[in-house]
Write a structure and sequence with these properties.
- There is one protein chain.
- The chain is of the alpha/beta class and 300 residues long.
- The protein has one domain: Metal-dependent hydrolases (TIM Barrel).
- Helix content is 38%, strand content 12%.
- Helix 7 links the parallel strand 7 and strand 8.
- It is globular, with a radius of gyration of 18 Å.
- About 5% of the residues have low confidence.
Length: 300
């Protein structure tokens, strides 16, 4: 099993100039979206803790996904990938709205074979039209030319329809919809809007979706509660275009990692053996061009 969506971050002072992260006292703190209001998330989550967490749940490898719109975050993740065989790839960040700078950083990151995709925190960006900006489109064409995927997080409500248009306009670009686009499960009227855009996106062959990040306040995190989303995703995308993701450690706000994955595996029990293999591993490997990890030893 490949967990297609896992985060790491360091909130302490910069350990050295190689990482390129600003010191907390010398400039803006990385991960500006993260603060005391996030409770247990407001601390560092590192590679050793992640390895033990994955191993305890029987997960052999994972994709590291950016948590900050900085090249420093990407450098950090690539360093972790260099030290850990369970890290199968990295979805990083480049300044998509600055094509010349984006190309420079892209060429630098591509020297590391772990670099397999790009993401931008569109839900935190104040520009509703970010995905439509000509400069961003130019950078995304560069990604496509290198065979890299583009992840779109928390797309609903501002960006899911725009992601549909992006997929239509750039059919050569592989677009990965994180967290099923963040369906508003607790709001019936909003769900109708999400469903329409979600089905439109699934109708385009260059799109993939992650079944991840589905903890919704006020909704029990159980297979029964999530089944409407699972059924919708399975009908729209099919198992060959869906991948499992734990969204650790963000998901710990709703459930421990082991339980998060158990619920998704329970939903996947209805699949055939071949379909299950697609959902648990093959879709991620194909989308990001990954190799299998060596099995992780269980933590002591």
């Amino acid at each position: 099993m490949i967990d297609s969506h896992l985060h790491l971050w360091e909130l302490g002072p910069d350990p050295g100039p190689r990482a390129g992260r600003p010191r907390t006292g010398d400039g803006p703190r990385p991960y500006a979206w993260l603060g005391p209001r996030h409770g247990g998330l407001f601390r560092s989550y590192g590679e050793a803790e992640a390895r033990k967490t994955l191993a305890a749940a029987g997960v052999e490898g994972a994709m590291l996904v950016q948590a900050d719109d900085t090249v420093a975050d990407t450098d950090f993740m690539l360093g972790v990938a260099d030290r850990n065989s369970w890290v199968l790839g990295v979805v990083g960040w480049i300044p998509l709205d600055k094509p010349a700078e984006a190309e420079k950083e892209l060429q630098r990151f591509l020297r590391n074979p772990a670099f397999r995709g790009v993401r931008h925190l569109v839900h935190d960006d104040p520009r509703d039209d970010f995905l439509e900006l000509p400069a961003v489109r130019d950078s995304l064409r560069m990604l496509a030319s290198q065979g890299l995927a583009f992840d779109v997080p928390d797309a609903f409500p501002r960006h899911l329809g725009r992601t549909v248009q992006l997929a239509r306009d750039l059919p050569e670009l592989t677009i990965v919809l994180d967290h099923l686009g963040k369906p508003p499960l607790a709001e019936a009227a909003a769900m109708d809007l999400w469903r329409a855009d979600f089905r439109d996106l699934a109708g385009l062959p260059n799109t993939i979706a992650k079944v991840s990040g589905l903890h919704v306040p006020g909704i029990p995190y159980t297979a029964g509660a999530l089944r409407p989303l699972w059924d919708e995703a399975l009908e729209a995308f099919g198992p060959k275009r869906l991948m499992i993701g734990g969204d650790w450690p963000v998901s710990t706000l709703g459930a421990p990692y082991g339980h998060t994955m158990e619920v998704l595996l329970e939903l996947a029990d209805e699949l055939t053996s071949a379909e299950r293999q697609e959902f648990l591993e093959a879709t991620a490997a194909r989308t990001y061009g990954l190799e299998r990890a060596q099995p992780l030893a269980a933590p002591a």
